[in-house]
Write a structure and sequence with these properties.
Helix content: 55-70%
Largest sheet: 3 strands, antiparallel
Strand order of the largest sheet: 2-1-5
Distance between the termini: 31 Å
Shape: extended
Low-confidence stretches: none
Number of strands: 5
Number of domains: 3
Strand content: under 5%
């Protein structure tokens, strides 16, 4: 929400600045126009102007410039611009706390894992020398095992940038059975990309030959896709009119690259997104909430770093939800094997410990905290996510 407010304020300042500049330019243009007209009058006469005529032209120009009032208008526009600009830094100061160390909490990290995560991040980015240097200086020789995997992936992705599919095809062929078990269609998508490149840059004969050799094995399972691709052969040389022109969009290369990266990481036992990037991005998302909490508790003279559980939720996007969790709405405890979520007859869900407290250890019925329905512990059923 704060980022949206800041963006809206920035857009407002930028809009006012643009409007002010436009009006300033209009004033300057009007002044220039009047001066040019006066010069034109002076130059229009073949005979030298008399001092009286010259004076009348200049007097008329002076009156017009006084009517325009350029100095007054420009000063007013500049003042308005300065007012808008001066408000924005104040908003930034309110929105962004310069001392983010308030949200710092001392955690006992496993530095071996941290070193491996950072080295892995460097390898993912193709910074192999930097990753090697970190591993050497940190004394983490076991982390070098993932280097070869990411080197192979990096070489494949670099080749895809120049539309060289051979390294990707070699990898897919070598891992065909594992990819099939994962339900992957990478091989078909790779041949589709190569086929469409031939459609755009080759001949009908080349495209037909490629389709017979590499696409026909997929026809039985992907008939609709196969037919759409084969139809494209008819439109070689006039692809703008092809009914399936969307197949040749550059976005398909990007989608293939993302999907290949996901399957590659899965086969080598690594997550697709960099753990370091995920942690930093999630930290940025949660930082405003943590800073607010730290400030509120500081006013109350309480030390938030000492609490074991945050009293407020830290909302993150769906991209950070890697598995289902349940937080009891009564106790605020996260569900676990010892304290699983329980479904009540009214279809509300509480943790087992909350139900036991409400029912006095199953000795009596209790009222649901969210509706008038009464239930007993025996009527509640465990939920499995």
């Amino acid at each position: 929400m704060e980022l949206n407010t800041t963006k809206d304020a920035f857009d407002h300042v930028a809009k006012r600045q643009k409007l002010s500049s436009s009006k300033s330019q209009e004033v300057v243009d009007r002044v220039g126009h009047e001066i040019e007209q006066a010069l034109a009058k002076i130059q229009a006469s073949n005979d030298p102007l008399s001092p009286i005529d010259l004076k009348s032209i200049l007097t008329e120009l002076k009156l017009k410039l006084n009517t325009i009032g350029p100095l007054h208008q420009l000063e007013g526009l500049q003042k308005e611009r300065n007012i808008n600009l001066s408000k924005y830094p104040k908003l930034l100061e309110k929105s962004f706390n310069p001392d983010i160390s308030k949200a710092y909490r001392n955690v006992d990290f496993d530095f071996h894992i941290v070193n491996q995560i950072i080295a892995s991040h460097f390898y993912r980015q193709g910074l192999f020398d930097l990753g090697d240097c970190l591993i050497k200086e940190a004394g983490e020789p076991e982390a070098i095992a993932i280097r070869s995997h990411f080197l192979e992936m990096y070489q494949i992705l670099e080749a895809l940038k120049v539309k060289n599919l051979e390294p990707a095809l070699n990898w897919i062929t070598a891992n065909r059975e594992k990819l099939k078990q994962n339900g992957s269609t990478l091989e078909l998508k790779l041949h589709r990309l190569q086929f469409l490149e031939i459609i755009q840059n080759g001949t009908k004969a080349d495209a037909l030959s490629y389709a017979r050799t590499y696409l026909s094995p997929f026809a039985s399972l992907h008939m609709n896709e196969f037919q759409r691709l084969v139809v494209c052969i008819i439109w070689v040389g006039k692809l703008d009119s092809c009914p399936h022109a969307e197949l040749m969009a550059p976005a398909h290369w990007e989608e293939f690259t993302v999907e290949l990266t996901q399957h590659f990481c899965r086969l080598v036992g690594q997550s697709s997104p960099s753990p370091l990037s995920v942690a930093i991005t999630a930290g940025i998302e949660g930082l405003p909430t943590l800073l607010k909490l730290a400030n509120v508790m500081a006013v109350k003279k309480q030390e938030w770093l000492a609490i074991k559980q945050l009293p407020v939720p830290v909302e993150l996007g769906k991209e950070f939800q890697f598995h289902s969790i349940f937080v009891c709405p009564v106790s605020r405890d996260q569900g676990s094997e010892e304290n699983p979520p329980m479904l009540m007859p009214c279809l509300h869900v509480l943790c087992k410990q909350s139900i036991m407290k409400l029912s006095k250890s199953s000795s009596r019925t209790f009222k649901c905290p969210y509706c008038p329905t009464e239930a007993s512990a025996a009527q509640c059923r465990q939920l499995y996510f």
